[in-house]
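Hi there,

I know you've been waiting on this one. I reran it after we fixed the sequence typo, so this is the corrected version. Both the input and the resulting structure follow.
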Amino acid sequence: MTTLETSKTLDLVHRSDGPSRPILDQIADKWSMTVLAVLDEPRRFNEIKRHLEGVTQRVLTQTLRRLERNGMIRRRVLPTSPVGVEYSLTPLGASIWEVYGQVYAWVGANADEILAHQAEYDRRHSCTNANPRPDSDSPVSLAS
């Protein structure tokens, strides 16, 4: 691939209206990757819900439907009485989980450093925010 082709590909990826944007938004939302992590083995809806603290039934249903639509998970109706449903990763879902697993490991390995940077940033900016200086873009309040 030439530099120009690579540049065009990168431009497309970074465009807010590019074809990858909706897919990135869907897989990078609050619950999608967590659901994929829980599906390390096939699970039923309530079992998935028990593993996800704070998720509502409605949000979990929407997330599962979106992941199924994107080909990340498979929904299988079980021949039980009452009828049950089981969710499992597809090969596509397993492949993105491998990538996300690397990101998760990176976060774990660098969390202390990131937290230290956040604390330093917050310390530097708390003095600035405590006594804000008026500038040309911000309104000045004369009320005390």
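Quick highlight: The longest helix spans residues 91-130.

Best,
R. S.
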